[in-house]
Structure to design on (555 residues):
């Protein structure tokens, strides 16, 4: 098996410098041959052969000998010869097994990525993963991160974005499924459709989470007003061709047990983000007593069980409650690599309508009960037990002029406008912190919220309608862009900061294989049955420079 040599950072820098010197001063066949050897294939069995090849290469012949070029060529030869003795300190990129074809530029691609300005300063494990992706067959290298801010004084140089966390993704952290494994009697004779490209190279990926240090905006990633860029790079997923399918990334926050505030609202309900003492007593009595304030909440009261390769749907599943934030839809490229970009801020930190969950098939028993697709959220509203809107004023209008407000077609990215009537008002999503609040009603306020109701569906539907109503000032069951703006006052609070979960609290990441089923919730949510990749958060402190150059439009 052929391996590709991974050149150390300092050597690559020297090679690139010498390469430029040679091509500038000695543009002849000998120099070209030397430069071409940056792409050499090597491994333990043929390093000696490579060394011999370098010794016997055609010598440089210069029509006009120059001392700098001669010195550079000699040093260049010494560096190349020295590479043959460095195998004990180097790693090798694994090409795909035959009959698949390796990346013929693996050595050069890995060196370029390792030295690239947006990657050079990243933590070792993340950098290694990006370099590994570069060494594989690919349609494009990992996405370059450009700065989104610059200094406010001449010469107005770009201000680097700052990496403060990342995720490394693979297929080992959840129950194998027909997308990620051969299952006898299920797909062992069928064509592979998700993982398995390049003759079975493991499917891997990385997610970089970087903060834009824009003037006037927060530079603390724990501040929900911060603007953050997210770069996902994946290798080893087949392109989805049929029925408008796609892959989708999800940042996942696991609900924690709320703190106790024993002063209820006027209606007897617990305060926002809190539970009453009576709620806390019921939670502590569950299972082994895990559910005390500050702990990760579990549905059985036992220690947290996160998704695992040993799980088995439907009887052995995670017992945590996930709030899953979509990173948007994307697909892979010709060589089975995928690259996605997404912006995290208070205009995007919004969650699918939670009342879809009983209809995804991911809750045990719902598929068998025929509930898959029994309800959809195409026309925005506050769910089965809340406000149901007329599709004419609240549907996706093909006309330029809207029925109620200015715009006809729904455009949920049209969050801001100088005229509020031109902001989108038909959001199906809700702010992430509001989703968390709904789950507190459903799972933790066992004494203060509908204590006589124990069935999941009515608790969810009632909680959704009740909590949306606290923010929905016009009573249409929808949290519009203006109502959900971080600066808007609601429910007795001066602003909506409380309605958003900071990026640093999304401790897990998953990628799902989606079909066009009309639902915004993850496929088979809240289970892991639609997953093809997952990983956990790695914090970076102090943050690391993670961009090079400047975005052409850094507004």
């Amino acid at each position: 098996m052929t391996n590709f040599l991974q050149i150390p950072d300092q050597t690559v820098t020297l090679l690139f410098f010498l390469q430029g010197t040679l091509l500038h001063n000695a543009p002849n066949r000998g120099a070209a041959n030397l430069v071409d050897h940056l792409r050499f294939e090597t491994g333990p069995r043929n390093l000696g052969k490579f060394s011999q090849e370098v010794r016997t290469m055609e010598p440089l012949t210069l029509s006009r000998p120059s001392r700098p070029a001669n010195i550079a060529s000699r040093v260049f030869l010494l560096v190349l010869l020295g590479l043959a003795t460095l195998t004990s300190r180097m790693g090798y990129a694994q090409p795909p097994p035959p009959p698949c074809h390796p990346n013929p530029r693996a050595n050069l691609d890995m060196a370029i990525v390792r030295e690239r300005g947006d990657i050079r300063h990243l933590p070792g494990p993340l950098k290694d993963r990006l370099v590994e992706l570069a060494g594989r067959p690919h349609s494009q290298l990992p996405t370059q991160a450009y700065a989104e801010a610059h200094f406010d004084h001449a010469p107005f140089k770009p201000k680097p974005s700052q990496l403060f966390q990342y995720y490394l993704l693979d297929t080992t952290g959840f129950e194998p499924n027909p997308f990620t494994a051969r299952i006898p009697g299920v797909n062992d004779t069928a064509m592979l459709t998700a993982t398995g490209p390049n003759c079975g190279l493991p499917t891997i990926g990385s997610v970089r989470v970087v903060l834009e240090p824009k003037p006037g905006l927060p530079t603390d990633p724990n501040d929900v007003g911060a603007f953050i860029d997210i770069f996902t790079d994946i290798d080893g997923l087949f392109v989805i061709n049929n029925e408008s399918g796609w892959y989708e990334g999800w940042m996942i926050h696991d609900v924690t047990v709320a703190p106790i505030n024993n002063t209820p609202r006027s209606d007897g309900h617990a305060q926002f983000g809190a539970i009453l003492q009576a709620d806390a007593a019921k939670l502590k009595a569950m299972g082994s007593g895990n559910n005390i304030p500050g702990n990760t909440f579990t549905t059985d009261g036992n220690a947290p069980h996160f998704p695992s390769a040993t799980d088995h749907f439907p009887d052995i599943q995670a017992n945590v409650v996930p709030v899953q934030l979509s990173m948007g839809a994307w697909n892979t490229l010709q060589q089975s690599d995928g690259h996605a970009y997404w912006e995290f801020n208070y205009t995007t930190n919004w969650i699918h309508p939670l009342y879809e969950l009983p209809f995804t098939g991911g809750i045990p028993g719902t598929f068998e009960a025929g509930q898959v697709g029994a309800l959809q959220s195409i026309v925005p509203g506050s769910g089965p037990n809340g406000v149901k809107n007329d599709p004419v004023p609240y549907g996706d209008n093909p006309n330029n002029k809207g029925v109620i407000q200015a715009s006809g077609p729904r455009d949920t990215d049209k969050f801001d406008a100088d005229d509020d009537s031109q902001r989108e008002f038909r959001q199906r999503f809700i702010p992430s912190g509001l989703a968390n609040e709904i789950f507190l009603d459903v799972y933790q306020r066992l004494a203060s919220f509908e204590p006589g109701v124990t069935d999941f569906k009515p608790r969810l539907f009632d909680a959704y309608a009740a909590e949306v109503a606290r923010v929905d000032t016009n009573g249409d069951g929808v949290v519009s862009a203006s109502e959900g703006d971080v600066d808007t006052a609601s429910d007795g609070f001066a602003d909506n900061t409380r309605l958003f979960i900071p990026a640093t609290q999304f401790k897990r990441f998953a990628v799902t294989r989606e079909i066009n089923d009309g639902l915004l919730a993850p496929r088979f949510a809240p289970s892991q049955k639609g997953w093809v990749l997952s990983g956990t958060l790695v914090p970076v402190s102090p943050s690391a420079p993670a961009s090079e150059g400047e975005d052409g439009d850094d507004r």
